[in-house]
Design the sequence.
């Protein structure tokens, strides 16, 4: 029997078309004329939005499995996992949210000091590497066990393939590096730090027993980021990010029990974004200075 692939290789669909249309409208908004730009300068609130994709590496992790009714309370010690990028193979022939994507939505609450609040989401994927020798210790089928097993399908499988899913609320600090005289190109460094919940999609086979694949709120994470941001024409920007994240998962529902684990994650992220302003325009004009010759 063939295994069902966790990937969707369908053609570009309606949801993707809507996304591309929205992105186009954002970018179109970012290249308006200089006159429109001057009017926008009077608006009170500045925001930004970006979308992109990531590649990830994980530390080793120990996965604790608790299944009291089955007589199981064991740990896979220092097991290895990997990501599944998805964007490196025919990205336009699958849903945009199938690969490892991420987005950022932020608000500059103090633009002069380069300070912003940001909501970030990283759709990372964690898959326990098949075929490795796993060290299992603890209570297994009611007996104390300390043994090595071959972690492979169809008896064993464990992945957060529809997302390990890091949500964070970040504080952002922007520091200028370089800017052209006409202000059309600008290079900045951004530092970010934040924390929030994880919302993994849990799917596994433990000793040939399948769980029901599902999403859940399953713990917390905290991360720190360093970014290089290149802005074109003041509105459109490209952002390259290196991120370190620590994620701790608890109460993940498996067959007749729960799983617990924690790992560190190193991410490389490339995002395309746009700055935009919202709010009422300041229509008050500056007082006119009356020159002596006008009297």
Sequence:
């Amino acid at each position: 029997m063939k295994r069902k692939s966790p990937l969707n290789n369908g053609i570009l669909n309606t949801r993707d078309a809507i996304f591309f249309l929205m992105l186009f409208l954002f970018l179109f908004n970012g290249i308006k004329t200089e006159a429109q730009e001057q009017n926008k300068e009077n608006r009170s609130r500045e925001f930004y939005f970006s979308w992109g994709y990531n590649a990830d590496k994980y530390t080793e992790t120990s996965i604790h499995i608790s299944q009291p009714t089955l007589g199981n309370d064991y740990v896979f010690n220092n097991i290895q996992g990997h990501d599944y990028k998805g964007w490196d193979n025919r990205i336009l022939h699958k849903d945009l949210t199938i690969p490892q994507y991420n987005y950022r939505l932020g608000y500059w609450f103090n633009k002069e000091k380069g300070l912003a609040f940001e909501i970030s989401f990283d759709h990372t994927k964690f898959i326990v590497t098949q075929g490795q020798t796993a060290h299992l210790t603890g209570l297994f089928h009611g007996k104390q066990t300390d043994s090595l097993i071959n972690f492979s399908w169809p008896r064993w499988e464990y992945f957060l393939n529809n997302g390990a899913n890091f949500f964070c609320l970040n504080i952002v600090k922007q520091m200028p590096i370089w800017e052209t005289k006409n202000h059309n190109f600008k290079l900045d460094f951004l530092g970010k730090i934040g924390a929030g919940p994880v919302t993994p999609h849990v799917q596994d086979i433990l000793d040939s027993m399948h769980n029901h694949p599902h999403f859940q709120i399953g713990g917390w994470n905290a991360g720190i980021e360093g970014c290089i941001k290149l802005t074109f024409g003041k509105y459109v920007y490209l952002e390259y990010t290196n991120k370190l994240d620590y994620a701790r998962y608890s109460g993940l529902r498996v067959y007749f029990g729960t799983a617990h684990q924690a790992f560190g994650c190193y991410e490389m992220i490339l995002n395309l974004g746009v700055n935009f302003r919202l709010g009422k325009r300041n229509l008050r004009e500056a007082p006119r200075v009356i020159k002596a010759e006008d009297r």
